[in-house]
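Structure tokens please, single chain.
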Amino acid sequence: MAVQEIMQMPTPAPPDKIHHSDEAAKWFLSVALFSLVVFGTFGLITAIKFVVPSFFAYISWMSWPRIRPAHVQGVIFGWLIPVAYSMFFYMIPRLCGTPLYSEKLGKISCVIWTIGVFIGTLSLLNPAGGDHAAGTLNLWLMTKGKEYEDYDVVSNVFLTAGVLLVAINTFRTIANRRYRQIYVALWYAMATVMWTALVYVIGNWPGQAIESTFGIPAAFSGTNDANVNWFYGHSVVGLVATPGAIALAYYFIPKSANAPLYSHKLSIIGFWTLGAIYFWNGAHHLIYGPIPYWLQTIATIFSFLLFIPVTAAVVNFLGTVRGEWHQLRYNVPLKFFVSGVIMYFLVSSQGSFMALRQVSGTVHFTDHTIGHSHLALFGFATMFSYGSILYAAPRMWRRPLYSEGIAEWSFWLSLIGVIIYVISMTISGFYQGILWENYNISFIDTVRAMVPFWHARAGGGAMMVIGMVLMAYNIYKTATSPAPADEVKPLSTGAANLAQAN
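Here you go.
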């Protein structure tokens, strides 16, 4: 850029005038970290079952078809969305110079959201067992059997109510702001809750349950059903997890690096192009599928147009850290953020090329897609969330981080684990697709060829889960260890950050 536009974040109000209790943020963070460990463990079990099929074989509710959707849905709705809401409730009041509109409403929304995740998980695992267990034949409690739409209708109602309450709290707090300027993180936070409500209602519309109960035609069918399914499936990542994680990055990267945002103009370009482009991407999951050829082409074109918002965000984040690279030696939150930025660019580039017909024809339905999704939801979104937590938690509980050493271990285990996982799945996916295209090779031989890669997958997953446990333990000890209320230790970011913490 010829001229760099530097935007300083608003100066917070004096701590003696505004007290942020952060109670709702603490509730959501506690739920998120608990879910991270539980559903992350489910993911590890699914990986182990590929190499040890008899693992938990005699426990019906631990079978692969049950814990796999419980893992996927749980990571998204039990971990990524609650941790984003937690950090929203931390940063929005500080960016607005006003307390959260209602801590009580925030805690109520947390309880309602958690009930929704619990009901959805219970329905998926179905611990009663048996083919005719109570509830399995009830459309209101039955999984819809579609990718990312596994939660039952009752769970959907609770989750929808939860996000609407979060939206009320978010918008009322911003409406009460003391600063006229709306910082870009607020734009992304508002978009996240709006898009979550919109996308979730469309994707989980209880059509079959309504038709069965009331006799009113309300369900999508045929090609429309497939298209809506992947509008929802892809938008959960691109219009929920992505803007949520980017909102955190726009607040916490400048805070962690103690540096001004590189360019406000780039942030605006990234925001509006993301919203305009991402709605059209879901159909690239249906290349060679039952949708019109022109729609597949549009999805491919818009998949490459995503380079605009992605590049804008990546340049902005790395530009913010310029001149502060030395902090990577000791600043753990910044390590998580920089790693997440790199993986954000990699996963977005990978996704664009996967939308090409020739590439999709080879790697779709293979392990390659599994590696791609983990690079997105763990390598990008979770790494951003980890960095945000390590910065915010000591300030939320007003005491030092329990252990910077444990934080360092959680970083390296998470980073190395996801690299091993993604590389093994990326290579195995291409290899798997090529083998499938050879009609002279039997299917069982293609399965045997994947075993070494599945061992690597399980190993990488184990490292990621250990990192999850360490992260949760570190925050738990931070929250429960005694410390003077007026002593908050900055996490290796210098005394300047502490002055702005409240």
